[in-house]
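Much of the work behind modern protein science is quiet bookkeeping, done one molecule at a time. Below is the pair of lines this work produces for a single protein:

***
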Amino acid sequence: MQPPAMAARTRLLQPSPTLAMTAKAAAMKAAGEDVISFGAGEPDFDTPSPICDAAIDALRAGKTKYSATCGLKELREATALKLVRENGIHVAADQIVISNGAKQAIFSVLQVLINPGDEVVVFAPLWATYLQQIELAGGVAKVVHCSADNGFIPQPKDIEAAIGPKTKAILFNSPNNPTGAIYPREIVAEIARLAKEHDLWIVADEIYEKLVYEGKHVSIASISDDAAARTLTIGGWSKTYSMTGWRIGFVAGPRDIMAAMTTYQEQVTGNVNTFIQYGALKGLQMPPEDVEAMREEFMARRDLMASLLSQIPGVGVGKPGGAFYHFVRVGEFLGGKVADDIALTEYLLHHAKVAAVPGSVFEGPGHIRLSYANSREAIKEGVRRLAETLSCLRT
């Protein structure tokens, strides 16, 4: 006899393509193959020693009990102070919830805000997890496709066209994964205006805020009092401090939403690991020079990879303003030996021994995402392999 069927919602779930490609590359490496991975969405630097030391000190000091579900008071105070000083978002500690990574923060926000049938406007190319999390909340994603001709920046007329009577929220990510696009102030202000006009929530994923090379990051909650009252700002430590495995993030927003999120988190995970919170607190207390050194190295790698890619006939590459990805146009290599960008990444993995992520998983077909969170030597060799392999595929 077969056991009872699983819940219908499990049919909505799909494995993370990025993690799948990273795992596949890791398995090949473990088997002795010389694979260069441009797939990972995480910094390759070690977590700064002061952060590690603070977590170890907390562990040894016995700070291993439950904290408040919404996070340590001192960490929430420091996070609020950071948002006031650096982002122009005027919040207090009781408007912060510390989460198990930015991913959980976004999930919890959608669970608290979205009813079945509600629509959420998102801008593609995008992080595929948004679509999954909207579905799991019972919502419907309304995807606005952004053109490379506009630098992957959403256009106001397209945003407005996607808003309908069932729209509940706009969710966006700047700096953007996978394109590296940074939304200029006028676009951010226009999103705020449309949200006010149509009475929508705004969910702003700002996890890459410190990795900016061109232009300036603008937090939408800083645009106006109205924008602040309807915005949930998502951030964290993973990208800024190279703490991806620590799993700690935050959300800032209106007090009633934060109270609901705290109750929700209370019934799902409880508090974030207590001694890790002390490590995160130390991160906020560190001098900015430590973060700046990582940013400068990423910028140098961005420029190096762009220069090398631009020398490959048929490859289209721009100059991303932030994050640590190149979203590379590869249409000229498709339709012959390889059908699409998904097939291309498999081909590159097995023939060039280079891991990349297909653009289709980000709603950006005809592209591949290459992470430059890798050493300069690996970037040079990896792009050399790409050039050699792609030369056999050009249609």
